[in-house]
Amino acid sequence: MHRAAAAIGTAVFAATVPASVIGVLPRWLARHSDPPPAPAAQRHLGTALCATGLPLVADAFVRFVRARGTPAPVAETEELVVSGPYRWTRNPQYVGVVSAVAGQGLRWNSWPVLAYAVYLVGAFHVWVRVYEEPRLSRRFPDSYPDYVATVPRWPRPWSWRQLTTRA
After folding, report:
1. What pLDDT shows up at residue 161?
2. Burial of residue 165, with CB atoms counted within 10 A of its CB: 0-12 exposed, 13-18 middle, 19 or more buried
């Protein structure tokens, strides 16, 4: 796929799937729960999570375009993406989505949005295990096993060695 087509496909995907998952549904859940205002420290933590998560998602999408593909399963990348945040976790885009949703839940003091973030953790884990990992194993049989052996599925923030050895 040409990079221009990948960029257009990624933009269409971003305007539909992540925009709904990160934007529309959390806002709807929060509006229908009518919570009291969050304390200032909680709002700041929520803002920090959003400010961390959204760039991870955007960065992943840019890397997918550079690898001549999109995040959509129907138009996969031609190359295995292993740079940037993909050096520390095989799924930074999902980490970013959950971070952004959880951040909104904290900012809005919305238990339904926080519960939705927890649901996303489980849904993403199942999706990765059942669909993405088997698919990538078949698509990149020479490089994916080494990648799996060296990069964890989910980030391990307690392992500072992991950050320094892949920098």
Report:
1. 54
2. exposed
3-state secondary structure of 90: coil
Integer Rg of the chain from CA: 17
Residue whose tokens read 């840019």: 62
CB-count exposure of residue 91 (10 Å: 0-12, 13-18, 19+): buried
Tell me which residue range forms the domain holding 74: 3-165
Q: Are 8 and 83 in contact (CB under 8 A)?
A: no
Distance CA 52, CA 67 (A): 23
Domains in the chain, number: 1
Q: What is the pLDDT of residues 38-76, one digit of tens each?
A: 899 999 999 999 999 999 999 998 898 888 888 877 778
Q: pTM for the whole thing? A: 0.88
Which residues contact residue 2 at a Cβ distance below 8 angstroms, ignoring those fewer than 6 apart? 68
User: Which residues, given as ranges, of the chain have pLDDT below 50?
Assistant: 167
Q: How many CA atoms does the CB half-sphere of 93 hold within 13 Å?
A: 21
Any idea what the CATH number is for the domain that residue 123 is in?
A: 1.20.120
